[in-house]
């Protein structure tokens, strides 16, 4: 593995997902889901009231809800999260990001912007591979989207009974929280799931023993007699037909392949007033599958030899990813291993979060250590100079990775929105392959302004009295900035002026925090009921419908959306 690949893993795991070390313990026992099966066991043809494509963060709660009044088929292209310690136990988070196999739960891709990213490929979706932070959308967001406030709150509570927990805050996270308050990210909102300006402790989907609870856990609400979930079931296309007297085509079935590449067909039941196919394949998968099925920009579909069902030019448009920029701060004293637990929600529309500690493979640790020492030995030039004793201690910090005891914290900023938008386009007609995705990070100047303000706040926190014991006093912030510029955190060009220009630093070191969205937005591709415009019996229910990320982390809202979108009551 080359240094570039190692650093992808390092920052993908530590900075984008936050890899941490806890005592190794996990539950091998899966829930008693008799309805979850391998697609290889599926009949050649099946009939259901609803066919849900994607058993992810939205698909699982949606399926559980709908099963109390209809028969449900869920087709998930990935496997089960249960019994896999790389998923269920926080200590083994890193190997998930290292896994490049065709069945990896985290499918890697690089956007056309040169930023490394992943998309989930597992039952439970992104909730099975993320850092676990749980927080609700703001009241303003709910109002702007037009959701029913009471139903939204009921749906959040329904989710939280199963997957959300209050984290234990230890010394490093306490220092981050106190530092944010010291530099003016006020007020102190203590622990809350709610989105409030100021500094707060949010929830987590990891319990006190370090076990992950994903959206797949919400399937315990389902009626087991009415639901079937097929794993490793990759949908190839949605089928459409024209019915006399109707102007619009109707979705009526899907073709999917199992792990052995055997084709199966699933159809909606006839003579039912339910009869819907629901795309919940995520912000990458949903627009991609619409295009593969003949719904998208006609010129683009024809270029790939796809028969056009509906010319839908806005499919794949409005793709956005909240840019993330970070500082890695070596610590002179031991730090606890912590998840993202504290967030500063600023008035200038940037989120400040942090984490401490990580674990990596020994071979990766040595490569990182050697690179870091080379960086330190070369920092003898203006505008800063790292003293020999600081070099030795910082190098020792990186050496500690091999023993899973790194002394460092990372503080990040993620902008709200964002305003900058991009697009998605097919690479080929293989649904297993990643499409081309462009996010156009910082295309809009306002996004860049938010990043600069966020980085200034991070620098203020690093220099605060509250945080002082977790940083080397003789290692200036400029050294931390220069460190980030020496590491291949993305494939973008690094400019010499990025050391002293926060604007250039934001552009050069941008990363993802995996909160991308868009591609099937409300009013452009779907209506307010999430029905695809111009097509009968087809909806899209997932983050691809969003214009902006809801709050500091979208997973709570995506799970809530799966519950409330059909006007669910407390029947489950």
From TrEMBL:
Positions of FAD binding: 76-77, 122, 235, 514-515, 543, 554-555
Keywords: Disulfide bond, FAD, Flavoprotein, Signal
Cofactor dependency: FAD
Domain of life from the UniProt record: Eukaryota
Glucose-methanol-choline oxidoreductase N-terminal domain segment(s): 282-296
Gene3D superfamilies: 3.30.410.40, FAD/NAD(P)-binding domain
GO molecular function term, any single one: flavin adenine dinucleotide binding
Keyword Iron: no
Disulfide bonds: 451-506
Similarity annotation: Belongs to the GMC oxidoreductase family.
Protein name: Glucose-methanol-choline oxidoreductase N-terminal domain-containing protein
């Amino acid at each position: 593995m080359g240094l570039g690949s190692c650093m992808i893993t390092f920052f993908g795991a530590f900075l984008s997902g936050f890899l941490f070390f806890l005592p190794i313990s996990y539950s091998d026992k899966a829930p008693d889901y008799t309805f979850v099966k391998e697609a290889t066991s599926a009949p050649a043809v099946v009939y259901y009231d609803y066919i849900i494509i994607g058993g992810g963060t939205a698909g699982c709660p949606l399926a559980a809800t709908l099963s109390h009044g209809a028969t449900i088929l869920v087709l998930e292209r990935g496997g089960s999260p249960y019994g896999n310690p790389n998923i269920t136990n926080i200590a083994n988070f890193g190997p998930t990001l290292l896994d490049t196999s065709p069945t990896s739960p985290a499918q890697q891709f690089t956007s056309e912007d040169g930023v490394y990213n992943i998309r989930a490929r597992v039952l439970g979706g992104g909730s099975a591979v993320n850092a676990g932070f749980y927080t609700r959308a703001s009241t303003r967001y709910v109002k702007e989207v037009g959701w029913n406030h009471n139903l939204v709150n009921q749906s959040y509570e329904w989710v939280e009974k199963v997957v959300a927990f209050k984290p234990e805050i230890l010394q490093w996270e306490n220092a981050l929280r106190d530092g944010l308050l010291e530099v003016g990210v006020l007020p102190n909102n203590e622990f809350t799931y709610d989105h409030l300006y100021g500094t707060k402790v949010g929830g987590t989907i990891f319990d006190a023993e370090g076990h992950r609870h994903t959206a797949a856990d919400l399937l315990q609400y389902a009626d087991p007699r009415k639901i079937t979930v097929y794993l490793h079931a990759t949908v190839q296309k949605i089928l459409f037909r024209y019915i006399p007297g109707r102007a619009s085509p109707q979705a009526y079935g899907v073709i999917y392949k199992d792990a052995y590449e055997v084709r199966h067909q699933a159809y909606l039941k006839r003579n039912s007033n339910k009869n819907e196919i629901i795309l919940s394949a995520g912000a990458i998968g949903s627009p991609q599958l619409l295009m593969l099925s003949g719904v998208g920009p006609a010129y683009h579909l024809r270029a790939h030899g796809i028969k056009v069902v509906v010319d839908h030019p806005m499919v794949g448009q409005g793709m956005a990813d909240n840019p993330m920029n970070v500082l890695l701060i070596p610590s002179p004293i031991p730090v606890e291993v912590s998840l993202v637990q504290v967030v500063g929600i600023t008035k200038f529309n940037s989120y400040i979060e942090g984490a401490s500690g990580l674990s990596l493979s020994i071979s990766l640790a040595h490569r990182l250590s050697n690179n870091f020492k080379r960086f330190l030995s070369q920092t003898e030039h203006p505008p800063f100079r790292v003293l020999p004793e600081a070099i030795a201690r910082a190098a020792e910090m990186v050496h500690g990775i091999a023993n899973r005891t790194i002394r460092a914290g990372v503080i990040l900023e993620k902008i709200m929105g964002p305003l900058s938008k991009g697009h998605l386009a097919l690479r080929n007609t293989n649904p297993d392959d990643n499409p081309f995705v462009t996010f156009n990070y910082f295309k809009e100047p306002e996004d860049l302004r938010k990043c600069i303000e966020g980085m200034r706040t991070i620098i203020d926190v690093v220099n605060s009295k509250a945080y002082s014991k977790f940083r080397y006093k003789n290692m200036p912030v400029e050294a931390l900035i220069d460190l980030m510029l020496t590491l291949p955190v993305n494939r973008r060009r690094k400019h010499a002026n990025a050391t002293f220009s926060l604007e250039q630093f934001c552009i050069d070191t941008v990363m993802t925090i995996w909160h991308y969205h868009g591609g099937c937005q409300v009013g452009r591709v779907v209506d307010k009921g999430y029905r695809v415009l111009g097509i009968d019996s087809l909806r899209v229910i997932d983050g691809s419908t969003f214009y902006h990320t809801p709050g500091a982390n979208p997973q709570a809202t995506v799970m809530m959306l799966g519950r409330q979108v059909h006007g669910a009551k407390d029947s489950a």
